[in-house]
């Protein structure tokens, strides 16, 4: 991304899109009972509260009544139907992992099968987005968690800790290509959840080869354990490599969430928060998803950055927009055009 001399002036930045992730699939309800919904009514109320606080994108997972993460698509359909009525202006974004929580004590924490995840393209009512991972990758979500982060939570139990320490994301090339095809066929926008620049480069190749044609919504997921960590040097290199026509959200975990999101707000990028990423305000002080959103709204107000409403967020994300070719996608995103036969030197848009 290119930063002009006036790029940090809030009047020259897009309005801020805040993604809320209030369903924390890695936690058990007892870890934060005030903020982790179990019943369907509680799931819906969490969305309403996040929207009223200033979030316009809702990252969705679902729990069963026993508190475990649901792997039933019927539960997602039920929640989507109720959310369309309760928060009609929110962008509804399904987490592509569905639920990665262990089935029982000592069980593996793992993403569901390729075929099951493909079925996210068949949800009814359909979501606006489904998140998609690129390249099979380690996803050790506890690597950066401190003893303070997990104190008094289920992840403190050795068998749960080990389950998450050994988790990985299955996302091989054939699965990615088929998933992108199915999402487009059903009018659902992919939201690319990327661990590092190498995965961003793979997305660029998918675009150059015509596998994906459309707007590029990207989240830099800096959670360590196979992903980048929340290191500002990693962050700035990733930002530098994202094309100007893409929309970039920054995501990390635990008490790194607030400083990384503060930098995102200042630089004209977008933010994500909620109990899926973080349970804490100050050290040892739990903070609800709504409280985290309210923090970001206050920081944006101090910096003069306006908050997008639901319609504005849809325009920024280009929901419902698709492109017809690699050339069109490259041009609209700001990537250099593909090399023509016999063309030498660097390529650029005249």
Describe the structure concisely for a colleague.
By secondary structure, the protein is α/β, with parallel strands linked by helices.
Notes on the protein architecture:
Helix 1 runs parallel beside helix 10 (289-303) and helix 9 (257-267) packs parallel to helix 10. The two termini are 19 Å apart. It is built from 12 helices and 10 strands. It has helices at 40-53, 73-86, 114-118, 147-150, 158-165, 173-185, 197-208, 232-241, 257-267, 289-303, 310-317, 326-333; strands at residues 18-20, 57-60, 91-94, 129-133, 137-138, 168-169, 189-194, 217-222, 247-252, 270-273. The protein is an alpha/beta fold.
Give the biggest beta sheet. 8 strands, parallel, barrel
> Please, what is the oligomeric state?
single chain
What are the low-pLDDT stretches, counting only 5+ consecutive residues below 50?
A: none
The span between the termini is 19 Å
> Percent helix among the residues?
25-40%
The order of strands across the largest sheet is: 1-2-3-4-7-8-9-10
How many helices? The count is 12
The averaged pLDDT comes out at: 95
- Which percent range describes the beta-strand content? 5-15%
Radius of gyration: 19 Å
Give the overall silhouette.
globular
- List the secondary-structure elements in sequence, H or E: EHEHEHEEHHEHEHEHEHEHHH
Q: What is the number of E strands?
A: 10
Briefly note the structural class of the backbone: alpha/beta
């Amino acid at each position: 991304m290119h930063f002009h001399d006036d790029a940090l002036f809030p009047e020259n930045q897009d309005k801020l899109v805040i993604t809320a992730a209030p369903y924390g699939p890695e936690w058990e309800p007892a870890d934060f009972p005030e903020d982790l919904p179990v019943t369907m009514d509680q799931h819906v109320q969490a969305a309403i509260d996040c929207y009223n606080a200033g979030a316009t994108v809702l990252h969705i997972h679902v729990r069963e009544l026993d508190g475990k993460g649901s792997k039933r698509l019927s539960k997602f359909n039920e929640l989507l139907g109720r959310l369309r009525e309760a928060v009609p202006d929110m962008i509804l974004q399904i987490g592509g992992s569905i639920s990665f929580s262990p089935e029982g004590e000592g069980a593996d924490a793992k993403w569901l099968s390729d075929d099951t995840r493909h079925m996210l393209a068949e949800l009814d009512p359909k979501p606006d987005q489904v998140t998609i991972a690129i390249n099979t990758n380690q996803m050790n979500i506890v690597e950066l968690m401190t003893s303070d982060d997990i104190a008094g939570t289920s992840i403190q139990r050795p068998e749960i800790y080990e389950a998450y320490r050994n988790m990985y994301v299955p996302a091989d090339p054939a699965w990615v290509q088929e998933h992108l095809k199915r999402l487009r066929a059903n009018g659902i926008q992919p939201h690319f959840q990327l661990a590092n620049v190498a995965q961003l480069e793979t997305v660029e190749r998918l675009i150059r080869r015509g596998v994906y044609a459309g707007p590029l919504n990207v989240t830099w997921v800096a959670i360590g354990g196979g992903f980048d960590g929340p290191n500002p040097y990693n962050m700035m290199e990733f930002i530098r490599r994202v094309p100007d026509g893409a929309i970039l959200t920054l995501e990390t975990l635990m008490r790194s969430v607030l400083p990384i999101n503060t930098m995102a707000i200042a630089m004209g990028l977008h933010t994500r928060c909620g109990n899926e990423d973080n349970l804490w305000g100050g050290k040892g002080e739990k903070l609800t998803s709504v409280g985290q959103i309210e923090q970001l709204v206050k920081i944006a107000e101090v910096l003069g950055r306006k908050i997008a409403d639901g319609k504005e967020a849809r325009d920024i994300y280009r929901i419902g927009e698709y492109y017809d070719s690699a050339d069109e996608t490259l041009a609209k995103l700001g990537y250099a055009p593909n090399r023509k036969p016999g063309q030498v030197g660097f390529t650029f848009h005249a």
